[in-house]
Amino acid sequence: MSGGASLGVRSSGSYGSLPQQQQLGGCQSSPSPSPPLAARKPAKMSLGGAGAGAGGPRVFARICKLAGRRQRMLLLLLVAVAVAFCFLFSSLVSKDEDASPGVETMLVFSDHVRSFVNPGWTSSGRPVAQRGSLTVNGLNTASHMEKQSDSKQQVQELMQSFPPAVMDHHPCENFSLSPPPIDRKRTGPRPCPVCYLPVEQALALRPAKPSLSPVLQSLNYMFEENLIPKESKSGSLFGGFPSLEEREKSYDIKDSMTVHCGFIRGKTPGLSTGFDIDEADRSEMQLCQSTVVASAIFGNYDVMQQPENISKFSKDTVCFFMFLDEETEAAIKNSTTIGHTKRIGLWRVVVVRNLPFTDARRNGKVPKLLLHRLFPNVRYSIWIDGKLKLVRDPYQVLERFLWRKNVSFAISRHYRRFDVFEEAEANKAGGKYDNTSIDYQIEFYKREGLTHYSSAKLPITSDVPEGCVIIREHVPITNLFTCLWFNEVDRFTSRDQLSFSTVRDKIRSRVNWTADMFLDCERRDFVVQSYHRELLEQRQATLRSWPPQRPPIVRVHPRKMLPDNAAKEPWRASATKKLSGKRTRDKRSSSRRTHRTNMKEAIQL
Question: Where does the record place the region Disordered (predicted)?
Fold first, then answer.
């Protein structure tokens, strides 16, 4: 581990500037000279037995005396090999003891950073098992809360010990975004080049403190067991049936707020609240302290995609969670074995029961928009839809789209549409949802002041997101945004692209915060999109229904073989050819004469 892209030695326990990091990372202390080997004691006996002392050497001398000359030579050879092996082994041990201390320091620093990123990390490479007895309220026991407070205190101490790196110039500041390369075969949306930092440098730029949350500092969530809907079209039991008056109050942002945010029937999300999760899974989710990459497949709608190009450091410190329903779990078990670790590749599988909705896509909005409720101790999250495959390291994605821009919420904009009204028409044309429900939602937003997108909204670049990827930091203002976004999805249609701009603009009109929107081609650089399972199976069935293509028939005309002696006697071959031609003409003329004779005889008769 040398060079600027390594987690090398840093002076005074801080990251320092990038030039210092490069200098210290590539610096290795020279190894100290090995101590001289201890002088060997002179042997007490020779092979001939002279100077023998104890009984053991006398027996050895007698054996040498009785053995023949050849046997003694073999014995000497074995002794020499043993001595050489012992000398070589002692020299290797001495080199290992006197190795450069830089390697040890780098290993200790690497574990230190692992502890900084994930307090549950130990030098053994495995998370610390933090288990406590469960009470009626789930995981909030005294021992568990004590361990969580210790972890938070450890994170704060490590943040003070490792301030963020100070860089005069960012390595990607001169990078210019170029359009995707021209490809006549691909006319649709494509990825474009994106400048990422190495994982080690990206970690060095991780902010030491959470991002500021304007105005809102404390966010709490409503819970109530006995609920009665107060008005029609007010959402679901899982969401708590918020009234229009409560909806309007939720946008009155104050220092401390309590809002509807799903899981209304209990204090512990996943414990008899709808969207129920087993104790072991909830405990594992509680232990996730730093960053989580999450996805979900409900209704066996997609094929599970394994992340690629993930660094060893991220595999050790980032949580990868995949939420499934029982239908999807049964389908996966037909082809894959889910062991006691509940892992499939990098994904930690969580089976959800007692789903709150009958629509699989609407169930998927729960982990998509409410990750801060499922993972209360996580600081950063990356959500990807089940049809997507992550092909970049999570820390590189966080540095590129959050830390570099100093934002707390990032989502890609739609590659073609920027206007909510156009998106609504496209959803109706594509049969994405009931047309009457889409029209009702758009008319409701129009009465609240929704207008067509225009340049007057700049610097906002779009009203329509491509919501399959969400990158965010879990701070009160972003948690409020996703709570209110989920409430809109619960009240109206499940097409979250239609309600995104309404929630964003309402919050933006009250506090200095907005969601950052990056290009869709940049999103396509770090995730690869696959087909939904139904469409994929249809394509495969269509290919199987086609008749198999027959290979083209190649007709080979046989060549006329010459006699064996044609090569040796060419004159004979030419003469044979002439003779055969003459015989053919004679045969034809003879047949004509025979035909004339037969005609004359027929006339005479």
Answer: 1-55, 548-605
Domain count, the chain: 1
Query: 26 and 8 in contact (C-beta within 8 Å)?
Result: yes
Q: Is 109 inside a domain boundary?
A: no
Angle of helix 496-508 relative to helix 476-491, nearest 10 degrees, comes to: 140
Query: Are 45 and 79 contacting, i.e. CB atoms less than 8 angstroms apart?
Result: no
d(CA 391, CA 381): 16
The answer to which of 2-6, 161-165, 327-331, 402-406 has the lowest mean pLDDT is 2-6
CATH of the domain at 367: 3.90.550
Give the residue from 78, 117, 94 showing the smallest Cα distance to 38: 94
List, for residues 160-195, the tens digit of each pLDDT value. 434 566 677 889 988 887 776 666 666 678 899 999
pLDDT digits (tens, 9 = 90+) for 111-136: 334 444 444 443 333 343 333 333 33
Q: Would you say residue 200 lies in a domain?
A: no
Tokens read off for 5: 């892209």
Cα–Cα nearest to 413, from 455, 453, 467: 467
* Confidence (pTM): 0.67
Give me the residues paired with residue 323 across strands: 296, 350
509 is written with which tokens?
């009109």
∠ CA 159-162-168, nearest 5°, is: 120
